């Protein structure tokens, strides 16, 4: 606590200032100003610097599995055959106090190889000799940890997650021949990266570990960050391992940042894929930026997961994952993410076929030319009743699971977490609040339509799982939160903020 208090006292105010800067930037976007590459940092973009050398165990990251910090899943992920494992306090984790603290305990035990688990059916779990390289994703700058007060105030959840983990494990990780490695989520500017860098410097000093020991991979998962990728790597150049395409939050961010702008109405969520022009451009720009700076460009997460008991549907889902990984490997990504151990062999096959060496940093992709207009070119497509209903039902089901402490669930055979569901609920809001929110059959999407469909989707769920089961679970609270977010005239920045009020 003394260590965490030092970090919070040194940097808490700067975090608040950066959040205020986000709000200020939003006002400019609301007034119609579009983002562009920053004139004041042109020298950094044009300069010939590179990031500090990347440690040996982060040179080959061809397949990384991600998952919440649950005990059994940590063991399964570390044993999965993936090269890396990102243990997630963020998109896939409900930040109950129990989950947060037990997650830290699980990671501490995993690093010391004392972790084990027994299923209710008696199946036991322990680590294999060879395990994935561990990375940890603390929560984003927007979130508070309300269970910890310093000087009477709840503290930054990100500093808490980072601080507890690095304090207890940095030295042990070094003794194991690895290091304290992080993924940094949801940043919107290079100044936010500078804050993380300064936190790393103080943490390393307080823990007496060499400067530059901490390595971080930054998720480029906001539209504004995609205009500052060089700058973000520059700020973190002593600590940067790479960038990652957090595609789901990225799509959400586009809807959120331009929620006032009718030119940014997106079609059904299922149509906003990585092969649309703006998403492919962002992925290519990430690869080019990273390779110019000798950093790794990690791909993103396909939402498909293995489907049990339906071989045909399973084959289709796996083929989609395969195509996604093939595109990433052939474009020049140095690795990718999977959501489930069953997908590790598929992603490995695709990367092994196109990337026999440890990474593709030598492929500089100087042929890529991505402009601001490319990043902002929205796809055409239609909005359907099925798409609207799916957004409503998925948001409701996810929020219900989240309130029970489960931040990542399969819904309709897709992985749903806080990022994918932010897209769903943001689309509902966007379609209601813009004249362009019209179904392909000509009906205008309204709050009344949303409420009618919500009620019908609730009844459908109740019929599927049974009245008693439905009543026993927090569906009512989930529906209330969803209605509150959708009916608010202001765009609520993150759905997890009102939802957190229910659990803390
Ligand atoms: C947008 C983003 O932020 S992406 C990053 C955040 N999202 C994630 O990390 C996704 C994590 N994935 C998951 O949580 C799960 O795979 C789900 C919820 C999507 C699906 O879970 P389930 O339906 O329970 O999967 P399923 O029943 O097929 O699991 C089979 C086994 O694999 C394990 N497993 C599934 N996913 C994972 C995972 N990501 N890591 C470790 N183990 C896993 C299960 O624990 C289970 O183990 P067991 O057989 O020993 O009991
Ligand atoms: O964190 C990943 C994302 O896609 O969002
Ligand atoms: Mg994300």
UniProtKB/TrEMBL annotation:
It is an enzyme of class 2 (transferase). Pfam families: MS_C (PF20659), MS_N (PF20656), MS_TIM-barrel (PF01274). Its EC number is 2.3.3.9. It catalyses: glyoxylate + acetyl-CoA + H2O = (S)-malate + CoA + H(+). Residues 133-377 form the Malate synthase TIM barrel domain. PROSITE patterns: MALATE_SYNTHASE. Keywords: Glyoxylate bypass, Transferase, Tricarboxylic acid cycle. GO terms for biological process: glyoxylate cycle; tricarboxylic acid cycle. The keyword Transferase applies. The active site is at residues 137, 417. Residues 2-42 form the Malate synthase N-terminal domain. Pathway: Carbohydrate metabolism; glyoxylate cycle; (S)-malate from isocitrate: step 2/2. Belongs to the malate synthase family. This is Malate synthase. It comes from Dictyobacter vulcani.
């Amino acid at each position: 606590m003394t260590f965490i208090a030092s970090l919070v006292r040194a940097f808490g105010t700067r975090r608040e200032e950066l959040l205020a800067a986000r709000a200020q930037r939003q006002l400019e976007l609301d007034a119609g100003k579009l983002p562009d590459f920053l004139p004041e940092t042109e020298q950094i973009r044009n300069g010939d610097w590179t990031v500090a050398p990347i440690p040996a165990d982060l040179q080959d990251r061809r397949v990384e599995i991600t998952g919440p910090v649950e005990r059994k899943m940590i063991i399964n992920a570390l044993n999965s055959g993936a090269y890396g494992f990102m243990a997630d306090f963020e998109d896939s984790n409900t930040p109950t106090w129990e989950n947060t603290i037990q997650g830290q305990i699980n990671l501490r035990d995993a690093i010391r190889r004392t972790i084990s688990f027994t299923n209710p059916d008696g199946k036991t779990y322990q680590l294999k000799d060879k395990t994935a390289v561990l990375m940890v994703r603390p929560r984003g700058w927007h979130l508070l940890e309300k269970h910890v007060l310093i000087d009477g105030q709840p503290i930054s959840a990100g500093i808490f997650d980072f601080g507890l983990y690095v304090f207890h494990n940095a030295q042990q990780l070094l003794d194991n021949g690895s290091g304290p490695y992080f993924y940094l989520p949801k940043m919107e500017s290079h100044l936010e990266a500078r804050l993380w860098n300064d936190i790393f410097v103080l943490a390393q000093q307080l823990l007496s570990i060499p400067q530059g020991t901490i390595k971080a991979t930054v998720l480029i998962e906001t539209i504004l960050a995609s205009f500052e990728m060089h700058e973000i790597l520059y700020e973190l150049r002593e600590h940067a391992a790479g960038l990652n395409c957090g595609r789901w939050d990225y799509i959400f961010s586009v809807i959120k940042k331009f929620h006032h702008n009718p030119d940014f109405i997106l079609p059904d969520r299922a149509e906003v894929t990585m092969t649309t022009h703006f998403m492919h451009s962002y992925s290519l720009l990430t690869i080019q930026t990273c390779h110019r700076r000798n950093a790794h460009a990690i791909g993103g997460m396909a939402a498909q997961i293995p489907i049990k008991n339906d071989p045909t549907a399973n084959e289709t889902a796996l083929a989609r994952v395969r195509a996604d990984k093939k595109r990433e490997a052939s474009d020049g990504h140095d690795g990718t993410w999977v959501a489930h151990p069953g997908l590790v062999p598929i992603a490995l096959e695709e990367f092994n076929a196109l990337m026999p060496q440890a990474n593709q940093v030598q492929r500089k992709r100087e042929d890529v030319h991505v402009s601001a207009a490319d990043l902002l070119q929205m796809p055409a497509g239609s909005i359907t009743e099925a798409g609207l209903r799916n957004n409503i039902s998925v948001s409701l089901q996810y929020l219900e699971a989240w309130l029970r402490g489960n931040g990542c669930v399969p819904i309709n055979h897709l992985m749903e977490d806080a990022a994918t569901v932010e897209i769903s609920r943001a689309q509902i809001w966007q379609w209601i609040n813009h004249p362009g929110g019209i179904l392909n059959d000509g009906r205008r999407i309204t709050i009344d339509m949303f409420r009618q469909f919500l009620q019908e989707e609730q009844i459908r769920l109740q019929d599927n799982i049974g009245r008693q089961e439905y009543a026993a679970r927090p569906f009512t609270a989930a529906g209330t939160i969803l209605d509150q977010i959708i009916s608010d005239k202001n765009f609520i920045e993150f759905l997890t903020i009102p939802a957190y009020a229910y659990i803390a």
